[in-house]
Amino acid sequence: MVILTLNCGSSSAKYQVYDWDKKDILAVGIVEKVTLGGSFITHEARGKPKLTVEHDCPTHTGAVDLIIKTLTGEHGVISDMGVIGAVGHRVLHGGDKFTKSVIVDDAAMAVFNEVKDLGPLHNPANIMGIEAAKKVLPGVPHCAIMDTAWHQTMPPENFTYAVPYEWYEKYSVRKYGFHGTSFLYTAKRASVLLGKNPFETNLIICHIGNGSSINAVKNGCSFDTSMGLTPLEGLVMGTRSGDTDPAMPFYVMRKTGMSAAEMENALNKKSGLLGITGAYADRRDIQKAVLQGDKRAVLAQDMEAYRVKKYIGAYQAVLGRVDALVFTAGVGEFATFMRKKILSGLEGAGIVYDPEKNERVHTRNGEFIISADNSKIPVYIIPTDEELVMTEDAYALMKGTYDVHTSFTYSFQSRDYVNKGRAEGLREDIKKDPPLEELVARPK
């Protein structure tokens, strides 16, 4: 059986094709600039050269159609769409209506539309992606993998805001948290590497990408997280402000005459690292600017690292015991210079990193440990695999065996689990840098 996963953003559609019987990835890819003009697809299939094709996609339906034509065409990996048994869709926000992944029916779609204002940048695109895929693939189960589901274990004192309580009762105003599939995967993998029962494991997980958040995991469950009602709260991100004085938007609106919609757009799309530097949201571009002496780029890096450190310290305080600190997502996996800034000076908290180890690790082909031998708390780099969580949830939903993660076991929780595609890449990485093998994290 083959399972397709789709992650539709406002102007993109990412996909993965997974052979369930062989437990192997057949193809991955992304359609970019959907609805914007100049669209193109980048497609990578097992045993075939990377493919990039320009193709205008004015709608998400067009993007999904392009994905399907690519998967079944000359550079494809399946003969026809009849072999696909299920489709898993990432859905950012289900409000307080969904506490776990679900099969999409008319009632679920109604709820997604009802709460789409809670995720204004993501939910509309998620909905469009589901609608587009259902038109192209009407005969297979479509499953919504909820980004907020992992955080349903947070206690009320952690998810409730100190605002009029009726806002929670009437409008579901509370902290929800995001990056749930990423945190689920990395938390389960960390417990395997530590050789601990997942429900006796305390972790601080830093998912740092264009959008970033930190998760405090207590006894294997989400206890607190940096993102809130929407993904705007928390860390300094690529274009999002993260934590700020709630009175600041009103002050600026009075000074400038900005509307609420303009302010929301500014905080989500024109703030964060882009707002500070005035030019860059990509950490690689910021690092280049830092090396050229750009003072605002230096400030942006320092602010981002400082915010992460504050959350690490806060979560260490509320957890009491921390079994490991984990970095994941694009920046967490690749940006050695950001990890260095974040980890420097944490010795007093029992976190000591090894600079040489840190510099070597900039690949998502393996799991690594970069802490020094005398560190009380190990520091892991665990590349996330949100698509695998989506795939396993979709399969289990279709088979009727799915449940919340506290009552469900994923394949990657096994000590013997191997990601075949990444294992091949790791062998190549080690050929280029043999000492890298010494840093590979293996189950205890």
CATH superfamily assignment of the largest domain?
Answer: ATPase, nucleotide binding domain
Task: List the secondary-structure elements in sequence, H or E.
Answer: EEEEEHEEHHEHHHEEEHHHHHEHHHEEHH
Q: How many β-strand runs?
A: 14
| Average pLDDT | 93
The main sheet orders its strands as: 5-4-3-2-1-6-8-7
CATH level-two architecture of the largest domain: 2-Layer Sandwich
State the secondary-structure class.
alpha/beta
The N- and C-terminal alpha carbons lie at a distance of 33 Å
Query: What is the name of the CATH topology of the largest domain?
Result: Nucleotidyltransferase, domain 5
Structure description:
It is built from 16 helices and 14 strands. It has 444 residues and is an alpha/beta fold. The protein folds into 2 domains: 2-146, ATPase, nucleotide binding domain (Nucleotidyltransferase, domain 5, 2-Layer Sandwich); 197-382 and 419-439, Nucleotidyltransferase, domain 5 (2-Layer Sandwich). The strands form 2 sheets. It has an 8-stranded mixed β-sheet with strand order 5-4-3-2-1-6-8-7, sandwiched between helices. A 6-stranded mixed β-sheet has the order 11-10-9-12-14-13, with helices on both faces. The longest helix has 25 residues, at 295-319. The two termini are 33 Å apart. The relative contact order is 0.11.
